């Protein structure tokens, strides 16, 4: 963006929702924008830009998400806990993206926030599934190896069972955590198509 260009979207002074610089009214609160001045985005400091990150639009998205999570929790507590964990991680990833985006002088419209959140949900779910698969496979492999090793020095109907459980859970846990760590480092801060838009 050059110094002579106007920003394509700016925050509403009433609710902080991002609106196009040519709009007459705010899409969220209906505030009259005809009297609002639109400063060039390059004059704003990174701190000023980051202060716009959590406006009324973001608050409404978070409240909607909380309502869905607690609604699912009331019906199926087990599934609700999983959904709350996944949604919390996705919300954190979305907030980090939006903050970094605005510190770079770019604006993020509510629609883009929802798309980033949906992508973050997908990333969190895929990382969780991959870590679970790694844990499951390694747990069985380590457990069978521990069972075979334990039967060499233990006698009785449950020979090697304790060794199998300890070996399986230990190896499975280590591999699952490692896969989670590697995938998180790979995809948590990865740039997507929304970073490539001018």
Features:
two-stranded antiparallel sheet; disordered N terminus; 198 residues; mainly alpha; 2 strands
Would you mind describing this structure in some detail?
With 198 residues, this protein is mainly alpha-helical. It has two domains: 1-43; 44-195, no CATH class. It is 63% helix and 3% strand. The protein has helices at 46-51, 56-75, 77-103, 110-153, 161-187, and strands at 9-11, 18-20. The protein is elongated.
Number of helices, counting only DSSP H or I runs of 4 residues or more: 5
Q: Give the terminus-to-terminus CA distance.
A: 9 Å
Uncertain regions: pLDDT < 50 for 5+ in a row?
Answer: 1-6, 41-53, 192-198
The total strand number stands at 2
Q: Number of domains in the coordinates?
A: 2
The global form is: elongated
Helix/strand-derived category reads mainly alpha
How are the strands of the biggest sheet laid out side by side? 1-2
What is the chain-wise order of helices and strands? EEHHHHH
Q: Outline the biggest β-sheet.
A: 2 strands, antiparallel
Q: Gyration radius, to the nearest Å?
A: 25 Å
Approximate helicity band: 55-70%
Task: Give the gist of this structure.
With 198 residues, the protein is mainly α.
Task: Detail the topology: elements first, then pairings.
Elements lengths: L8 E3 L6 E3 L25 H6 L4 H20 L1 H27 L6 H44 L7 H27 L11
Antiparallel strand pairs: 1-2
Helix pairs in contact: 2-3, 3-4, 4-5
